[in-house]
Amino acid sequence: MDALLQQLEKICHIENTQQALEAYQQLERVLVQASNDQKAEFYLHYAFFMFRLENYDQCMNFFAQAQEYGFPKEEIRQIVYEAFIEPNLEECKENYETTIEQLKDNIYIDEDVSFEDLDLWFIPTLTTKKYFYNRLEEKIISIDVDDKRAVELPRKTNPFGDYLFANDGNIYEIISYIRRIPNEKKLYVYTEKIKYLFSFFQLPDMSRFLFFMQQTKIFGNQQDVVSYFIGCNAYLPRNFISTSQSFTKKDIEDLIHEIHNQRIHDLTRKRDNILLTIGIPSYNRGHRAYESVIHHLQSEYDDEIEIVVSNNGTDNYTAKFYEKISKIEDARITYFSFESNQFSTLNFAQVINLAKGKFVFMLSDEDTIFIKKLDILLQVIVSNRNLSMIKAYGDGQQRIQSTGLASQGEDAIRQYGFTANYLSGNVFRRDLLLKVEAISYVKENYTKKLCINFYSHIFYELLLCMLGDVYGINAIVIHEGASEQEEDFKSLSKEVIEEYYINDFPKFALYKERLKQHLCFLSVFQQFQIFYKNERILRLLYLLLCGKTFHLVTISIAYYHKKNNDDIQMILKDTYETCIIGLKEIYEVEDENYHREYKEITNLYYNTLKEYGYGRLEEQI
To answer: Which of 104, 135, 459, 566 is spaced 20 to 30 A from 39 at the CA atom?
Structure first.
């Protein structure tokens, strides 16, 4: 020890700085055999030498090494405090209080943290590396200040969900994750080392991180997280990351699940931020409706979704299942029942009236949404503010017809007009339907207009094509349940069958009824300014209607008229002539556009004739 001290004393008298530095470096290389006390003494001297050179980075490094080798903590603390910390204390406090004020809406903790309570004192060194004095551990520490470090998000993420990140208080790691997650997503930060994290708020360059930190919400314990999400309508985060030593990803998942359970069982909870209503109009199939409700309640979503069941006055043995639905204690369920049957059209409308969601996913009671596909649905909803409708398809008859985004108006009509063959899979923007009073129109006209009575969902579809963008999901979203048509038919009374069926075939699907429905849709187009004010749109709608009518008539032929030995050629000619009558109503003058569309309808007629083996019989026109 004496020899080492003598050498250190000699170095102190070397006037040439470079020679002194080389002497320290040479002595450091032979410290391997020295005791810890000798090493501590050496690095203390070395630190003071670097201080004189104003090399504060190395100065702190050597003070830290002296500390590691056992130099008294109190002495190190006093040296560092007096030389580095105390002269800058007021400035650091001012920085801290300014940052806390700017982030006050982003901090959700149960107690205030004063500057005097912080775990770390900042040690200004005029270097890129950040040094702090850890007051709890009584030692100098250095922090990696790389806020653009390569961090990995989970391989499998929920495309809709926000992120909850458990961290041990390293702000540079937090900023790195904020940079990494998608821009539209929120990052919730959970740390049990809140005084450690807040210590970074005293830094003079903290202002450059404020933009990022203002996109977060910071929690200091589990109860903070619970209180926040129980007390507000924010959606629970669905993507979890943990670099914490004390709070794992599994701990996060358990905490979020606990909050989810509290939310869904609080029947007094104000639910005013619902994105998606799963709407289930039902009649005489309580067992199916009940199965559907139980299935959808398995979803991990709470404030994002709701399930609305409207019972259309059921009068059969399945009524007990609707009663079971009404008694389920889950805040996501809304149940309603008419006293008697009000026609399916009014029941559909009632679902939309009862809904609180931004969008209403109409669903037949035998069908269900694949739970994992809710992520996609919700992400589509929040990704396009101008969205008016979503098209979702099933794994049976509801085959994918068109996918992707179609712009409002002509593009949406051309791609998605008259594609609502079934109720299930039509996801309607509720506020837009209410804005144009579509529900009121249906209620007032369903007994007067056949097309509204049987196809109100197509009416809604066409309106929404004109009111916003439409998106078709390129994935199977719906599981189509087994049809119960035969059982449903047998449950009908003799009077109902005689009024609405002929030889077990629904009367509304006979070809003459299809032609009435065709003219009905034309009258709706001519009644609504949103359709008729644009001649190009009106003509496009009518051509699509003609195609739809021919398609439905061929179905009528296949399932009834052919079996009844009706004149197929005459049926097709009536269909064609009805289409031409409508075309003439649209055009006051038979101009070039009229003749072009006349030809299109004529070709449609001829092609349909060919399918039945009649060839091109021009003289029939």
So the answer is: 135
277-310 pLDDT per residue, tens:
999 999 999 999 999 999 999 999 999 999 999 9
What is the pLDDT at residue 300? Answer: 96
H/E stretch holding 188 reads: strand 187-190
- Residue 298's CB is within 10 A of a number of other CB atoms, namely 7
| Cα–Cα dist 175/189, whole Å | 11
Residues of the chain with pLDDT under 70: 1-9, 12-13, 127-128, 147, 400, 483-500, 615-621
Residue 469 host element (H or E): strand 469-479
**Number of helices and strands (H, E) in the chain?**
26, 19
Please answer whether residues 219 and 231 qualify as being in contact, where contact means their C-beta atoms are separated by less than 8 angstroms.
no
- Quote the CA–CA distance of 186 and 79 in Å, as a whole number: 43
What are 283's two structure tokens?
């009649």
How far CA 43 is from CA of 38, 50, 78, 213, 255, in Å, comes to: 9, 10, 16, 38, 47
d(CA 331, CA 509): 40
- Largest alpha-carbon pair distance within the chain? 124
Nearest to 239 by CA among 150, 151, 159: 159
- The tally of CA atoms less than 13 A away on the side-chain side of residue 185 is 23
Distance CA 471, CA 587 (A): 32
CB 51 within 8 A of CB 35: no
Half-sphere exposure of 25 (CA within 13 A, CB side): 7
The three-state secondary structure class of 491 is: coil
| Beta bridge partner(s), residue 334 | 308
Which pTM was predicted?
0.87
DSSP for 271-324 reads -----EEEEEEESS-HHHHHHHHHHHTT-S-STTEEEEEEE----STTHHHHHH
Specify the DSSP class assigned to residue 440.
H
